[in-house]
Amino acid sequence: MKSICELARLVDGAEIIGNKEIEIAGIEHDSRKVGKGTLFVCIPGVHVDGHQFIRQAAVAGACAILTTRRDVEVPDGMTILLVPELRAALDAMVPYFYDYPARSMRIIGITGTNGKTTTSYITRAILRHAGYKVGLIGTIQIMMEEEVFPIHNTTPDVVELQHTLAIMRDRGMDYVVMEVSSHALDQDRVAGIEFDTAVFTNLTQDHLDYHKTLENYMLAKAKLFDHVSEPGVKQGKTAVVNVDDAAGKTMLAHADCAHLTYAIRQPADLRATDVHVLAGGANFTLNHDSFGTMPLQLHITGIFNVYNVMSAVGAALAEHVSPENIAAVLRTFTSVPGRFELVKAGQDFSIIVDYAHTPDGVENVLRTAREIAKKKIIAVFGCGGDRDRTKRPIMGRLAAKLADVVIATSDNPRSEDPESILDEVEAGVRETIGDKHHERIADRREAIFRAVELAEPEDLVIILGKGHENYQILKDGTIHFDDKEVACEAVAARREGKGCRHSS
Ligand SMILES: CC(=O)N[C@H]1[C@@H](OP(=O)(O)OP(=O)(O)OC[C@H]2O[C@@H](n3ccc(=O)[nH]c3=O)[C@H](O)[C@@H]2O)O[C@H](CO)[C@@H](O)[C@@H]1O[C@H](C)C(=O)N[C@@H](C)C(=O)N[C@H](CCC(=O)O)C(=O)O
Ligand SMILES: Nc1ncnc2c1ncn2[C@@H]1O[C@H](COP(=O)(O)OP(=O)(O)OP(=O)(O)O)[C@@H](O)[C@H]1O
Ligand SMILES: N[C@H](CCC[C@H](N)C(=O)O)C(=O)O
Ligand SMILES: [Mg+2]
């Protein structure tokens, strides 16, 4: 509980209209989450204006609203906390409301186009093996030790994030490992968080719909390193940076703290040498002054995962985890849901489900697939709607170049027409295809069934873009959809000589 006056004092120019004596029991910007004594934050969003939900919030128990609009109408008895700028007000008030939870735990933030989720899972495993209680916040879910909670954004907004951190603190987490998306950095969702270790994985094209240029996108990522540089209550902060990536330099330039660099191709503090990518994993040697050399046989494969391992090891070293604990986890770590995940349904060919949804992701994953494939690669992939359109033909080109059979399909079309997305994907496919086998099937289920139907013994069917997702977002709503489930159904249907429509 905090008094509304306390909250108002945090914001220059704030004014309380109505009862000044009220106590605030919670802060929410979603009317559906409001309870008794809540301060309801009215956000004019992209889709709807939060001011429309004031009455609903009042019925649900909200005692006050936070707004920038003096002319707003509220039910009798409701207090208005009027501020000049909403985001700045939230950034000041919400961490204060929860007593700055991030100050009581060590926080590891991971940014970069690809590899954040994978790095976060490996880091979590290492820290837990070292005996710490770990919270995780990222694309797939929120975790507090073994307990799992749903999540809607990779990095939640400041209201949900601070609330989550407060619960983690109250449950005694020593560490929080969190993915920090470029949207979150641009929108200050991580305000009030003092990071102990900030990790940069890589920067390649994505989200140009939002950031417009790669430069803006890079500078948004660099804000994580501005955060880690800010003076605060924490000691011993470190920036862990991939210096094989050209943007690594920019991240380091923003990081006024200790640096721990990692690379395969460049000189760096932490290096992987003698890298061999195999079907079931990758063998390499890790080199760092603190332990000399560490020979490893990973159970996850692809050069990109060697980089993800180095990000996680860099974070663990920055947090002074012993090399023995690190090695023990790397030798046993098997998978991250939906990332290069093998689907075993008794078939005589391989099926892999992967979350590659950027040009770099598609390229990395298909190159890895090529290294391990015994026969043909049949790739099923699409591009999300309401997202960076410029990546569509590029992903089409890469799939056509690196797979033997391409089946272009829908990812999450969201509000867009699936066929128009496919037109843009196909433009890239056609440029590159030569005489390769190419099909276009908008229905993702049919596309997966078709790939399975086409597969011959020892082929590799690779289904890209949706990984762990168990839904598909269509214009008319969201349906249950799970690539792994559908792939298993397709194998079963093929065995029984049935088609796609018979087994749903
Ligand atoms: C562009 C963007 O960042 N949009 C975010 C924004 O949504 P919005 O502006 O559309 O909000 P809105 O739906 O119009 O709602 C406005 C207000 O009305 C409220 N409302 C709405 C309905 C209702 O019944 N009652 C109610 O009170 C909402 O809670 C909100 O406060 O505010 C929402 C609440 O915080 C976010 O969930 C939403 O993220 C959307 C879902 C999104 O897709 N974001 C993507 C682009 C994103 O942020 N992605 C990155 C990951 C990228 C990566 O890892 O590659 C991420 O961190 O997830
Ligand atoms: N280090 C990497 N470099 C390039 N591609 C990668 C890397 N790690 C993973 N990938 C590819 O990107 C996909 C997504 O990986 P992951 O979920 O770890 O990334 P992410 O950064 O969390 O993505 P998102 O931004 O959607 O949350 C993987 O399924 C794989 O295809
Ligand atoms: N964090 C990414 C995830 C993309 C996943 C892909 N399946 C899609 O829907 O485009 C985004 O929101 O752009
Ligand atoms: Mg992620």
From TrEMBL:
Molecular-function GO term, any one: ATP binding
PTM (free text): Carboxylation is probably crucial for Mg(2+) binding and, consequently, for the gamma-phosphate positioning of ATP.
Transmembrane regions: none
Keyword presence, Glycosyltransferase: no
Positions of post-translational N6-carboxylysine modification: 221
EC code: 6.3.2.13
Chain residues that bind UDP-N-acetyl-alpha-D-muramoyl-L-alanyl-D-glutamate: 31, 153-155, 181, 187, 189
One Pfam family in the UniProt entry: Mur_ligase_M
Catalytic activity: UDP-N-acetyl-alpha-D-muramoyl-L-alanyl-D-glutamate + meso-2,6-diaminopimelate + ATP = UDP-N-acetyl-alpha-D-muramoyl-L-alanyl-gamma-D-glutamyl-meso-2,6-diaminopimelate + ADP + phosphate + H(+)
Keywords tagged on the record: ATP-binding, Cell cycle, Cell division, Cell shape, Cell wall biogenesis/degradation, Cytoplasm, Ligase, Magnesium, Nucleotide-binding, Peptidoglycan synthesis
Stored SUPFAM superfamilies: MurD-like peptide ligases, catalytic domain, MurD-like peptide ligases, peptide-binding domain, MurE/MurF N-terminal domain
Main location: cytoplasm
Segments forming domain Mur ligase C-terminal: 338-467
One BP annotation, GO: regulation of cell shape
Subcellular location(s) of the protein: Cytoplasm
Associated pathway: Cell wall biogenesis; peptidoglycan biosynthesis
Domain annotation Mur ligase central: ranges: 110-316
Domain Mur ligase N-terminal catalytic: start-end pairs: 23-73
Positions of ATP binding: 112-118
Binding of meso-2,6-diaminopimelate, residues: 387, 411-414, 465, 469
Family under the similarity heading: Belongs to the MurCDEF family. MurE subfamily.
Purpose: Catalyzes the addition of meso-diaminopimelic acid to the nucleotide precursor UDP-N-acetylmuramoyl-L-alanyl-D-glutamate (UMAG) in the biosynthesis of bacterial cell-wall peptidoglycan.
Protein name: UDP-N-acetylmuramoyl-L-alanyl-D-glutamate--2,6-diaminopimelate ligase
UniProt organism field: Selenomonas montiformis
